[in-house]
Design a protein that fits this description.
Number of helices: 15
Number of domains: 2
Order of helices and strands: HEEEEHEHEEEHEHHEHHEEHEHHEHHEHH
CATH superfamily of the largest domain: Nitrogenase molybdenum iron protein domain
Shape: globular
Strand content: 15-25%
Number of strands: 15
CATH class of the largest domain: Alpha Beta
Distance between the termini: 61 Å
Radius of gyration: 24 Å
Structural class: alpha/beta
CATH topology of the largest domain: Rossmann fold
Largest sheet: 5 strands, parallel
Length: about 325
């Protein structure tokens, strides 16, 4: 009798495991007869089949698609202006990142368009592209984890799991190792700024570079004092007196950004009283690593910050 009960229990366990496994598989993007199906950042069900005429409406998305082993037919001009990608001469420019030209996109006869769900100009053309019968996938990429998810989808589409390993999982191992090497050290404090034509603005840990600093054990003073995000106040910054000040220049003219910073921020007598300024821990960060999405070089950005914060210990 006991043996019979054991067999019944074993069979029930096997059935449960099988059904659970099937349920888990249904949640994953999967190839179908029609093509490869996945859900994008807007919740749309997208199906593509071996896309060869791909248009990317953001420089970082164009690079992700290339890193996934794909080819491009159309791109926005930031691919050249910000990233300097060397693409074939027949690749068409379809406007700017924040002003894509729908007519030029459609003229490319794409079988897939990659767009940002965080860019209103991209979301605005969703229905037009849908009416034209063009598969349009929206992605949201702010942090490395977002990049990893997008790369996984793209390499699933191209069938290049080796490139997901190389450009994704290997980079993750690098980042994890850097973060782990500092977990027992004293957390430095930092102020993260972006510069623009009117001066500077603080950023918290919800931003791309802010998240990197947090992952490395850094305490962002804008997380402690959220009012800094609304009003740049040197007196409030002096009260918290961070160990480091990091600055990311916005726009294409770095010299102008630095000039605006000098005239609107550094000219204040309070600025010279800040500990980070007095100790030489006031750092201008390169925008190719911290303003633009680093993609497969995300690990290099973490390494760059790690060396500033902790030296060459990683």
């Amino acid at each position: 009798m006991k043996q019979k009960v054991m067999w019944i229990g074993l069979i029930a366990l096997l059935i449960t495991s099988f059904l659970t496994g099937c349920s888990e598989k249904r949640q994953e993007p999967a190839p179908t007869v029609e093509g490869y199906r996945f859900a994008d950042a807007l919740g749309q069900e997208i199906t593509v089949k071996d896309p060869r005429r791909v248009v990317a409406l953001m420089g970082s998305f164009a690079q992700v698609w290339l890193e996934a082993g794909g080819e491009l037919t159309g791109v926005t001009d930031d691919v050249f202006d910000e990233r300097g990608l060397n693409l074939p001469e027949d690749v068409v420019t379809v406007g700017t990142y924040n002003s894509p030209n729908v007519e030029q996109i459609i003229a490319c006869r794409p079988d897939l368009v990659l767009l940002s769900s965080e860019t209103k100009e991209h979301v605005a053309i969703k229905d037009t592209l849908k009416q034209a019968g063009i598969p349009s996938a929206y992605f949201h990429v702010t942090y490395f984890e977002d990049y990893l998810n997008m790369l996984k989808t793209c390499t699933d589409i191209t069938g290049r799991s080796d490139l997901y390993e190389k450009n994704g999982l290997e980079v993750k191992k690098q980042i994890d190792a850097i973060a782990a090497s500092h977990k027992d050290q004293i957390s430095p404090t930092a102020l993260l700024l972006i510069t623009y034509s009117g001066g500077a603005a603080a950023q918290d840990s919800k931003t791309m570079t802010g998240k990197m600093l947090k992952d490395l054990g850094c305490e962002n003073i804008a997380d402690q004092n959220q009012s800094l995000l609304k009003e740049f106040n040197l007196e409030s910054i002096l009260k918290l007196d961070p160990d480091y000040i990091f600055v990311i220049p916005m726009g294409n003219d770095e010299e102008l950004a630095e000039k605006n910073l000098r005239e609107t921020v550094e000219s204040s007598p309070v600025w010279s009283r800040l500990r980070a300024v007095k100790t030489g821990k006031y750092v201008m960060l390169p925008k190719e690593k911290f303003l633009y999405k680093p993609d497969s070089k995300w690990g290099e950005s973490y390494e760059y910050l790690s060396k500033i914060l902790y030296g060459n210990q990683s």
